[in-house]
Amino acid sequence: MNRPDEATRQAVESCRDALPPTVDGGRVVFGFDGYIDRVREFVSERQSADEYERVSTLAEFSDRVNASVEAESSLSFEWIEDGVRTGGHTSHLARAFGEMGFDPAIVGCLGDPPEDPFVEEFGDFPLETLGSPGYTDAVEFGDGKLMLTEIGALMTVDWADIESQVGVERLAELVDGTELFGMGYWSEMPALPDVARGVREVLWPTLSDPPETLLLDPGDLRKREPDVVAEGITQVSALDDVVDVVVSANRYETRYLAQLADGEEDTFERESRAAFDHLGVTRFVGHGIDGAYLADDEGTESVGVPRTDDPVLTTSSGDHFNAGLALGHVLDVGRAESLVVGNAVAGYFVRNGTPPAYEDVVTFVDQYLDYFDAA
Fold first, then answer.
1. Which structural domain, as residue segments, surrounds residue 350?
2. Where do the H-state alpha helices sit in 240-374?
3. pLDDT tens-digit series, residues 63-88
4. Count of beta carbons in the 10 Å neighbourhood of residue 251
5. What is the C-alpha to C-alpha distance for residues 200 and 206, in angstroms, rounded to an integer?
6. Does a structural domain hold residue 63?
């Protein structure tokens, strides 16, 4: 049973006082990816056409794969499609902010013209497309997920594409006066260095009321070439000169960034600190299943996570943490408090399978410490 430490208790109590009872909303904008997710399950054993047992854990899936390798045998799985939804950084954060009462805009890879799933879900919001979406088959397990991804146009999108497909004037219209600008995923966007440069050199000088915060989700940078990552770090650090850049990464993404700083594998907190020092941004946040850590020039904050043994949905839990973290920054609730809000949005999502309304976030924060006892 995980229990909250004193730092977590203090952060939760402070967050309860800092969160307003309601929000007036506001505009937010997210770019530049776009995915259509097919949520799936692996079948372990089928009893009939309508009844089957699923492969319930990633460990069980791994055992089957390893057994097949050891036997030098091929392996096949039956899988079941359990829903189709829009995904990626843009969709998950736009969906969450829309549910919480904000007005999101999406500039991403939505199809040309935007494909039906995006129009059906986000048609009431501004949509600007950069090309074909990616597709992800997300296999859900009780202890994690397996995602098989086809990236789409994002693999080649650069600043020139954004200028030609959307236009600087239109992008400025969407970004100017917003509460927050989010970008993701760096790992799926090899031209991120060029896009970050364009945002800094071309877009930002045209804005009269720019957002104070830019949230960047790096994704799994292990799949990008080291020189591309290094150039990205240079450009992201330069971008921090014109807007407060907040980088948010999961446990393993954080470890890789810490290793780039020649850090040894260490505690999550120290790796978050090393990642912050290496990136040269305003703030770095590492989030995981047991805790979240925030590192900036003021020091390091940590908040424990109340786990659940019976998640409804785990795919995109990290994106929902980012939505809560971003909400905390928009509401200016404080450093540790923003981690509580991030964990609250993610915690509600994994327990219910849908993003929370704002009042659900407030309720989860009120009950935050009780969830540790229920774990």
1. 6-39+87-374
2. 251-260, 268-279, 317-331, 335-352, 358-366, 368-374
3. 999 999 999 999 999 998 888 889 99
4. 17
5. 10
6. no
